[in-house]
């Protein structure tokens, strides 16, 4: 009889960890006897009704001693909550230096899976048994679609939680400077997050919006993946100068899966999914130099927009192998 696989991960639709958890749990349930471990902090977060029903149908507290365990290591969970035969932790971290408490927590796992080679290399150098398991993309949702409304505009997309490491300040400065030069450049943003309270989000927006032309900026409040695809289809290029990513930047991957090219910081976890064949990439680590590079890269893309479709096609092809099915199989391999 196959051992049960208990999973302690968030599952939902409205932030990165929950999207990851929902897809990992769903795909693993097709190839293993999966049980969802209830967690009051995860279970209070919003979910679609179909997700609520699915999670309820497989919810069970670990019992006995013949089972394996998979747990995410996030702000809600550090150390191992239950101990099975093989215990895997899944982690994404942005800082190169980890605090002592987290390092001690990680010792309780048999294997640490990370979302990027950047994370894995750091942990391996510290003596941990670490492997890389990339996130997947639902390419049936994130797929190319034609522009309908902004054919005469050059639209730049910026997505991700509004915070320093996501570098929206760089986005605003670089795009704002070019908006003053080119009146047809539009910035479309998707910076909302369920953890950003309204007053915090407004304060963060105030920091960046002074750089931007209000008439050339569209700030959306997108709440679903289906909806975000419609907005992506109206854009020409994505801009991801993120200072640090523990994973591969799921929003950026989903954007490229829509057949779009990107301007991106070729560092940290993002490096795993970027290539000069289909993206405009920065180099170096001095921020002032990077900002100058980004401005030049945006202008190159603006002046050569006839090349963007070909690059976007290559970007989608590069994303197709990153499936949630593949992610699930790689997790199962750790238990065999």
From TrEMBL:
InterPro entries: Glyco_trans_1
Domain Glycosyl transferase family: 148-317
GO molecular function, one term: glycosyltransferase activity
One Pfam family linked to the record: Glycos_transf_1
SUPFAM superfamilies: UDP-Glycosyltransferase/glycogen phosphorylase
Protein name listed in UniProt: Glycosyl transferase family 1 domain-containing protein
Organism in which the protein naturally occurs: marine sediment metagenome
Top-level taxonomy: unclassified sequences, metagenomes, ecological metagenomes
């Amino acid at each position: 009889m196959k051992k049960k696989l208990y999973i302690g991960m968030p599952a939902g639709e409205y932030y990165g960890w929950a999207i990851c958890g929902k897809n990992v749990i769903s795909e693993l349930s097709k190839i293993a006897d999966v049980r969802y471990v209830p967690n009051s902090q995860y279970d209070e977060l919003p979910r679609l009704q179909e997700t609520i029903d699915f999670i309820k149908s497989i919810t069970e507290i670990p019992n006995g001693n013949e089972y394996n365990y998979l747990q995410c290591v996030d702000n809600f969970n550090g150390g191992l909550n239950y101990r099975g035969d093989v215990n895997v932790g899944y982690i994404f971290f942005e800082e190169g230096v980890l605090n002592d408490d987290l390092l001690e927590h990680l010792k309780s796992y048999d294997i640490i899976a990370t979302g990027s080679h950047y994370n894995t290399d750091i942990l391996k150098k510290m003596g941990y048994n670490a492997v890389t398991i990339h996130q997947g993309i639902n390419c049936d949702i994130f797929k190319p679609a034609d522009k309908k409304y902004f054919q005469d505009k050059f639209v730049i997309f910026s997505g991700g939680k509004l915070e320093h490491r996501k570098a929206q300040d760089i986005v605003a400065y670089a795009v704002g400077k070019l908006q003053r030069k080119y009146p047809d450049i539009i910035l479309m943003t998707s910076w909302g997050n369920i953890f950003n309270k309204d007053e915090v989000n407004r304060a963060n927006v105030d920091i960046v919006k002074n750089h931007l032309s209000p008439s050339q900026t569209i700030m959306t409040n997108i709440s679903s993946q289906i909806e975000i695809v419609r907005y992506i289809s109206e854009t020409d290029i994505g801009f991801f100068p993120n200072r640090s990513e523990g994973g591969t930047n799921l929003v950026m991957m989903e954007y490229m899966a829509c057949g779009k090219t990107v301007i991106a910081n070729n560092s940290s976890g993002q490096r795993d999914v970027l290539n000069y064949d289909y993206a405009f990439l920065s180099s170096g680590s001095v921020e002032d130099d990077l900002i100058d590079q980004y401005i030049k890269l945006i202008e190159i893309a603006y002046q050569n927009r006839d090349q963007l479709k070909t690059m976007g096609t290559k970007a989608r092809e590069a994303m197709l192998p990153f499936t949630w099915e593949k992610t699930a199989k790689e997790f199962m391999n750790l238990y065999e």
